[in-house]
Amino acid sequence: MYRFIFLLILVLLLNACGSPKKTEDVKNMGITVSAAASMQNVLQELKENFEEKHSTIDISFNFGASGALSQQISQGAPVDLFLSASLEKFNDLREAGLVHEEFQQNLIGNEIVLITPEDNNKNIKSVEDLKKAERISIGIPEIVPAGAYAKEALDHMGLWDTIENKLVLAKDVRQVLTYVETGNVDAGFVYKTDTETSDHIQVITSVDSKYHSPIIYPIGVIKSSKHVEEATLFYEYLSSEEAITLFEEYGFTRIQ
C-alpha cells in the first residue's frame, strides 16, 4: 500500500516537473505596423486573414499621417513594418538607412478625389467650382500625403492662391472625411478609397493624375525591428496576389 502511494506521488511530481503543454509553451509574437490612415479598413481585414494562417503572430497597427509616422520611426519608435502613402516620406527613411534593403517595394496605388457633403448646398460640380466654397479641407501638406497631392494639383491648376485662405487643415485624410460628412466644410480632398467608407458624401470628381505626383504606397521592414522574421512574413503576405486583390476591392489601384 505504501509502495503504491509512493509511486503515485512520484508520477505526479514527474508530471508537474515535465514539459509544459504546447499551448502554454508557444507564446504569440507581436509586431507593430505603422501605416497610412487611408489603409485602415483594408489592413484590418488583411490582418484577420493573415492571423488565421499565422496564429502565433499578433499584429498591432499605428495609423496616422505618413509624415508623422516617418518622423516617429526616425526618432526611434519601435516599429517593425512601415506602409506609407508617400514615396517622399518613405525615401527619407530609406536614405537614412532605416529600411531593410531586401524587404522594401512599391505596393499599391490610389487616386485623389474632390468630395462634398451629401447635400452639396454650394452646388460644387468641379474643382474649379471651389471658388463657391467658404471652407475647404485638406490634410496638412507637410505631413499628410493626400494634402500634399491636393496642394500640388491646385497649384498646377492655378487655384491654390484663390482658395488658400478658405482651407481647414486636417491631421489626416480621415479627419478631412469627417469634416465633410458633418458639413463643417463645403468640400475636401481625400483618397478614392476613403469614400468607400461613407454614405454621407458626394464624390464630385477624380483629380487628373497629370496634376500631381504619382500616388504610390511603398512598404518596408524597418531595419531596427526585433522581429524581422515575423515582419517579413506579413510584408510578403501584403504583396501576395490574395492581398493585392483585396486592396483592389477596397478601391486601391494595382501598380503595373
Class by helix and strand content? alpha/beta
Estimate the global geometry from the Cα principal axes: elongated
Q: What portion of residues belong to β-strands?
A: 15-25%
What summary fits the major beta sheet? 5 strands, mixed
| Widest beta sheet: strand line-up | 2-1-3-10-4
- Unreliable residue stretches: 4-14, 16-26
Distance between the termini: 79 Å
Secondary-structure element order, as H and E?
HHEHEHEHEEEHHEHEHEEHH
Backbone CA Rg? 24 Å
The average pLDDT score comes to 90
Give me the number of helical elements.
Answer: 11
The helix content, as a percent range, equals 25-40%
Quick one: how many beta strands?
Answer: 10
Plain-language structure description:
The protein has 256 residues and is α/β, with parallel strands linked by helices. It is built from 11 helices and 10 strands. The strands form 2 sheets. The protein has a 5-stranded mixed sheet, with helices on both faces. It has a 5-stranded mixed sheet with strand order 7-6-8-5-9, sandwiched between helices. It starts with a helix and ends in a 7-residue tail after the last helix. The relative contact order is 0.19.
List the helices and strands and how they pair.
Layout: H1 2-17, H2 22-25, E1 29-36, H3 40-53, E2 57-64, H4 66-74, E3 81-83, H5 87-95, E4 99-109, E5 112-117, E6 136-139, H6 145-156, H7 160-163, E7 167-170, H8 173-181, E8 187-191, H9 192-195, E9 201-206, E10 216-222, H10 228-238, H11 241-249
Parallel strand pairs: 1-2, 1-3, 6-7, 6-8
Antiparallel strand pairs: 3-10, 4-10, 5-8, 5-9
